Amino acid sequence: MKIYGLIGYPLSHSFSKGFFAEKFAKEGIKDCLYDSFPIPSIEELPALITRYPELQGLNVTIPYKEVVMPYLDELSPAAAQIRAVNCIHFKDGRKTGYNTDAIGFRRSLEPLLQSHHNKALVLGTGGAAKAVQYVLDSMNIPYKLVSRKASPGTITYEQLDEEIMSSHKLIVNTTPLGMYPNVEAAPELPYDLISSGHLLYDLIYNPAVTAFLQKGADRGAVIKNGHEMLILQAEASWEIWNGL
Question: Which is the CATH superfamily of the domain at 103-228?
Fold first, then answer.
């Protein structure tokens, strides 16, 4: 039996476990099992690996995407640049870290892009933002980082004026603002400056339409939530684990 799973803490609701259970059933994959492994500390990872010698791959979620890296033997170029890992492949006694968030984001964003989506605003500066920045860099789309606090390389929400909003037609929310149950929350954008030329992408998938996306839709913008990205990053993990 080949074992795959998800590490993080806590793991009250795991998209991954349900996704792979459905995938295995639908595709008639009999020799594989995917489980959730909530470990209270990353220091418990070596013991987990020892306990399950059949482990072929792990997904990694909050809060371990960065602190897991010292436990690995090597990193893919993307994971090394992003400095975050959400997928581990076990092969020939070696543990390799990958970042499939970047793969999922790129694959779901590309079909939506038009020629005028040539500059972006990235809301938030956390781990998720790093994967988004990596993708935008690789697609040669310049961007500004937006944060509540001013710091080198970022601008604040207060600085978003008509010129910036009209020239940056792609806006990506990487913050947790608006995630269930706090569905009323939204990044403090000047939403009146959003037009039908804008594309608003939210990494959140619950609720399906966040306040951020709804405010954009009300102004005629194209909107996209993070559900497809989640599916695509899970599929990318499966491709990596199976050498597809």
Answer: NAD(P)-binding Rossmann-like Domain (3.40.50.720)
- Fold classification of 2-98 is Rossmann fold (3.40.50)
pLDDT digits (tens, 9 = 90+) for 48-79: 999 999 999 999 998 999 999 999 999 999 99
pLDDT in tens, 111-156: 999 999 999 999 999 878 999 999 999 999 999 999 999 899 999 9
Q: Are the C-beta atoms of 122 and 143 separated by less than 8 Å?
A: yes
Determine how many CB atoms are found less than 10 A away from the CB of residue 128.
25
Give pTM, 2 decimals: 0.92
Helix, strand or coil, per DSSP, at residue 131? helix
169 is catalytic: no
Q: What is the H or E stretch that residue 242 is in? A: none
Tens of pLDDT, residues 175-197 = 999 999 999 999 999 999 999 99
- Residue in 17, 26, 30, 65 annotated catalytic: 65
SS3 content of the chain, % helix, strand, coil (to 5): 35, 25, 40
Do the domains 103-228 and 2-98 match in fold? yes
- The domain limits of the chain are 2-98, 103-228
